[in-house]
Amino acid sequence: MGDSKKKFAIAGLASILLVAMVVAVAVGVTRKNSADGASVGTSSKAVQAICSPTDYKDACEKSLANANSTDPKTLIETAFNSTIDDIVSAVKSSALLKEAAKDDSTKAAFDVCDEVLGTAVDDLKRSISRVSELDGSKVNEYVEDLKTWLSAVTTYQETCIDAFENTTGDSGEKMKDLLKTARQLSSNALAMVNDITSLISSLNLNSLNGGGAASRKMLWHNDPTDYEPGTEPGTWPSRHLLSVRPNAVVAKDGSGQFKTISAAVAMVPKKNAVPFLIYVKAGVYKEHVEIPKGAHKIVMYGDGPLRTIISGSKNYAQGTKTFQSATLAVNADDFLARDLAVENTAGPEGHQAVALRVSGDRAVFFNCHLNGFQDTLYAHTYRQFYRNCVISGTIDFVFGDALSIFQNCRFVVRRPMDSQACMVTAQGRVDPRSQGAIVIQGGDIVADPALFKAPKPIQVYLGRPWKELSRTIIMQVNIGGFIAPEGWSPWMGNFALDTLYYAEYQNSGPGSNQAHRVHWKGIKHINPKTAQSFTPGRAFGGDYWIAGARIPYVPSML
What we know:
Acts in the modification of cell walls via demethylesterification of cell wall pectin. This protein is of the alpha/beta class and 558 residues long. It has helices at residues 3-11, 13-35, 42-51, 57-63, 72-100, 104-133, 139-162, 171-178, 180-203, 212-222, 261-265, 528-533, 536-539, 544-547, and strands at residues 248-250, 276-280, 283-286, 289-291, 298-301, 308-312, 328-330, 336-338, 341-344, 356-358, 363-366, 369-371, 377-379, 383-387, 390-393, 395-400, 403-407, 410-413, 422-427, 437-441, 444-447, 460-463, 471-475, 478-479, 501-505, 523-524. It has a domain at 3-209: Invertase/pectin methylesterase inhibitor family protein (Butyryl-CoA Dehydrogenase, subunit A, domain 3, Up-down Bundle). It has 14 helices and 26 strands. Residues 1-13, 22-40 and 205-239 have low confidence and may be disordered.
């Protein structure tokens, strides 16, 4: 088939997929209604079809009751808009609750809600745009975006509720009630998009996409010179940083344009669309840096992780919410950091104290050191890739609900307080269709020498389930012998032990022996095909944004 004919053939693919999804289910609905002697209008049948894959069908059908349309795109967009309306309503109602709050911790929780729920609304709006733009030639890429952003919508609402932990009064329960319908509709939206994905897989439509991410991947690996920055959204000119003039230079000694990183970040244009390079010269920068929403495509690089260090000490023990404690908080898309360190020096007595929080899509970290104790890295939302990084901490020091993949990274377990145990991961997936997972591929898990100097042996585990559907995969990793034979730790009692998803595959080292691992229902023994599905080239759906970063990268098994 010629290129022009092929483009014509796939031009309407997205609409065909959506219609096929509705028709396939509508036929079943019609037959069932006929058997029952019922008469259902065409619009009602379409609504039932769209709502068929959802878990909260009553809420779904109610949200579409006034749609008066059989067009699948219109129905999906209406469902997304209904979710926006419910979240906005919850935010408005929460403002009254905030005014009535008497303690600072509760007020801070409402501040967290304002921020994350606002971002959830933004994600729903860009999801609506994606649905309206859905094009056959990019259907896989667009659907992956939708799944990622809608997964984040569910996570942001959970983050809001989490912020009320250990607050006084009933504000947390009231906020949970305000978000009840919005959380159901968010889950429904994710289910609708997931159904499109299933249809794509069943029809084997990847060939119609011209290879999609796979073709881009081969272009990068076969001939890197053909893969230039700007050829795909989210690419960065990072291969020749030393020969490229940065947009901003930060230096403590005054030899640059700025003395603080925050001042340089403030110069990034709003809704930035081209790479903005920030070179941070050697030094310890004691500041809390926030990359705001809209400051996209920042490339931040230093003189090496032992020389360029961003340092902070905000922590929960001193009254700062975990979400707000990050030394570096990334809220924009397409952020690349390399050759620098981020630390939180609060120590184990500070309890939750985040060094890095990433709440931006398609984030890449290369040759970075992330140092802290409890909650060092908050891999919060969206898609994140870490390569050749060192991450140190004590309790839950890699946590969150992003789809985060760590390739050839080192995890260093530090000494906690003497009464504590250590867990490397605490993944927080809350929806069965969410993209969220922590995948550790290659690299090693080692102990800081101080860990062995505690008066009593410290128990160390690979992870524990922060949320009910926690998902963590550890594969091809060299695991130190200090890891407890059980491997995994419960969160509290039997919580999530049946619903979590934990897997170990092709690991090595004295701590990799699974003979005495826990026997929870959620522990999985995966085969090569399943393991392959968690590699970056497969799990992310499209890996152009990693290849574009021009860092060492293996899309499949190591």
